[in-house]
Amino acid sequence: MKKLTLLLILALALVFTACPPPHPQTVQVEVCSTSSLLPVEWCPVKEVRTFTIGQQPTTPCQVHRGVKVCSETGRRAVACCPDVVEVAEAGAPDLYCRRHARNVLASPWLVLAWLDAQSKWQRYTPEEKEQFCQRVGGAGLFVMRIFFPGWADDGPNGCVFPYEQEADGGWNLDKPNPLYYENLHDMATMLGRYEVGLYVDMADQCSWDRPWDCWRRNINGVYGWMDTSPTALAYWKAAVDRVLAAIGGSEGNIIGLGNELQRFDDDDVTLAWALAWAKPRVDYLIGLGIAKPITFSGGGRTAHKIVGAISDEDGNYPDNSYLAIIEHGIALVDHTPPGSTSLEAWLAGYSKFHLLGLSDDGGTTQTWNQIPPEKRGTCSGDCCQANVAEKIKLIKLFSQYFVEGQFRIVEFLPREISWNEHISALADESLEAFWRVGLEFGVDVRRTF
Hints:
Layout: H1 2-18, E1 26-32, E2 46-52, E3 66-70, E4 84-88, E5 112-114, H2 120-123, H3 126-138, E6 143-147, E7 163-165, E8 171-176, H4 178-193, E9 197-201, H5 230-247, E10 254-256, H6 271-287, E11 294-296, H7 300-309, E12 323-328, H8 343-350, E13 355-359, E14 376-380, E15 383-386, H9 388-399, E16 407-410, H10 416-419, H11 425-440
Helix pairs in contact: 4-5, 6-7, 9-11
């Protein structure tokens, strides 16, 4: 009997060994081929996979997302785009809509700020760039001003310039630097997210003798920004085209002739030179569809002749809309510009311009525009801005001489935004001052995101 029982046990063991237990229950689920999660409408490739019940994915794909695009412009949408569609992020444009940006052009303000873009942008981390753009966008900034030739920087990674440099140190205008335009595109994209555009000045007289100035130190025979030769004009046009391609065109952005344009032989500047230099450049920008007025800042006889080249000698424009003069240096109502008897007399002469920009560059650089300690606001080194109360007085005086739309504030957010660390108290003070001045004139320029 015992033997029979033992044999029965052995037989049953063989049966159970030969017949494994049934498979766990499974389920077929459609998933995103990339993430293996539940697909969303933006997943480009989907497939059906078999999972053990309880182990199948239950969350949607986080890799593929949709983004809103402005139906009018085809750019990524901002808050005030009237009609938007949602498309897959993978196929969406990088740049943001500028047509519907909430900006201060709806008010009497045009606000610009400095960013040493070709230098400090290189050493900001992605998080710092994001923080910077959000803060200036929230402050109501319309466009960020940079200079095409570049700006010196001694920090890590150095500075990125628009052309390749040859062994002898000269810039080769036939070799555009791709990294420069990648930087420019990156700036336009990140600033655009916070409804800020770019103002690119194509020349900077202040950098005339600097090693980074491509218009002066090149191997192609271009003699500085004031060169009137066909060769110089051709290189200039090509540079404008590349800039516009990088920043997404001129809508909501500004292309300027230059900064502080004043030839070293200023007393001998003629209208013939201005007609050969300024007019074809202005005509080219307008021909590209860039909105007038075309901006520049300049001084002395040079600026007067540039104005005369596309108007008459007294600055009367055919359609009153070609140039915007950006005035530097005036910070207080009791400043008297050189060559004038008073600031009021100076303003009376400038009131015929279609648009005048006031650049609050600060004082103490020249004797006539110094700011006494009791009237100072933010300071960087020995260059100080007027305080908020003095700013309000000055802007009210300017506004008396210009009808609505003829006067803008330029560079009202001072260089402290970029010359010091952008997280500094000085930058906060500058942003706060701009907002308080706006409120004085019934304009709250701040934005929320």
